[in-house]
Amino acid sequence: MPELPEVHTTVTGLQRVLPGLTITSVWSDMWSTAKITKNTIKDRSYFPYFKKYTLNQKVTGVKRRAKHILIDLENGFTMIIHMKMTGHLMFGKYKENKKYNGREWAWLPVEPDTPLSDPYNRHIHVVFTLKDTKGVETQLVFCDSRKFGTIVVEKTVTLHLGRLAHLGPEPLEESFTKKDFKERLMRSPSRAIKTVLMDQTIVSGIGNIYSDEMLHLAHILPTRTSKSLSEKELTLLFTSMKKVLLQGIDFGGDSTSDYRNISGARGEFHHNHNVYLRTKQKCLIKACSGVIEKQTIGGRSAHFCTRCQK
Predict the structure, then answer these.
(1) Which sequence positions are flagged as catalytic?
(2) What is d(CA 303, CA 278) in angstroms, rounded to the nearest whole number?
(3) Which of 103, 130, 166, 276 has the most CB atoms lying inside 10 A of its own CB?
(4) Amino acid 216: pLDDT
(5) 99 and 239: one domain?
(6) Is 265 within the bounds of a domain?
(7) d(CA 72, CA 221)
(8) What proportion of the chain, given as a percentage, has pLDDT over 70?
(9) The domain containing residue 20 runs over which residues?
(10) What is the pLDDT confidence band of residue 284, given thresholds at 50, 70 and 90?
(11) pTM of whole model > 0.90?
């Protein structure tokens, strides 16, 4: 699932291209009848409501909250996009594939020899057509091979009361201090620290990949509980969290799975893993002779070195 660095990379890209453009049409084939998709773009009965508050609206800004992409519109509404497991947004010129049979490309990039033509970018299920002030059209497309992503529209002023109300603080905000970090972790003192780090109500934006990497950098086993951490370990974990997340951003995100940036290109953080998906490989810390192990913790896989993580 795209985590904070991938969502940040996407938002940074969208901030360069979307503001000032007007949404002129919305296409989707992402339909589902599952109860969990009610009142989202995957609900056919919700789709007219969604279009009512997005069509012919100018984009005024793009922001991130946790793993959510927020696209503000001039009418006081905001589109909330969560990419979930395999989703990503791309921006460019597309044309509809009239021969689409449900197994090929629903929409085709106008310029085929670009990263937009990566096979991982073919699962396009939502398309926003936009126009600039000169009438030039471009498309914002949502690619999601497993169709787990969600897209909704809500009033901007009430976002903090709705789908975003449960989220914890942003770990990279300057106002988020080590004292705040400790207080948040101690709200769940007896759970495994890896599970606590990934709890979006405790700290927002951290998932499986980056929790493994920051715990390794801090030399802390993922099975340790929050209350077992010393002040020194809490300080090291706090600085490791910020360092690893910023590294993820610097590398343009992690494309171990489906994630791509808005140009359709891969991020590079997956080339810099120290533990994630490195099961049975040697620990990369020079003075360590340990081997990376894998264990399921709280229903999620954890990768760690039992020699240098304590």
Answers:
(1) 2-3, 67, 300
(2) 7
(3) 276
(4) 98
(5) no
(6) yes
(7) 41
(8) 100
(9) 4-161
(10) very high
(11) yes
Q: What is the pLDDT of residues 157-214, one digit of tens each?
A: 999 898 999 999 999 999 999 999 999 999 999 999 999 999 999 999 999 999 999 9
Query: Amino acid letter at 153?
Result: V
Q: Which residue type does 236 have?
A: L
Instruction: Give the alpha-carbon dihedral of 53, 55, 58, 62, to 10 degrees.
Output: 70
Amino acid identity of 147? Answer: K
User: What b/e string do you get for 223-261 counting C-beta neighbours within 10 Å, with b at 16 or more?
Assistant: bbebeebeeebbebbbebbeebbebbbebbbbbbebbbb
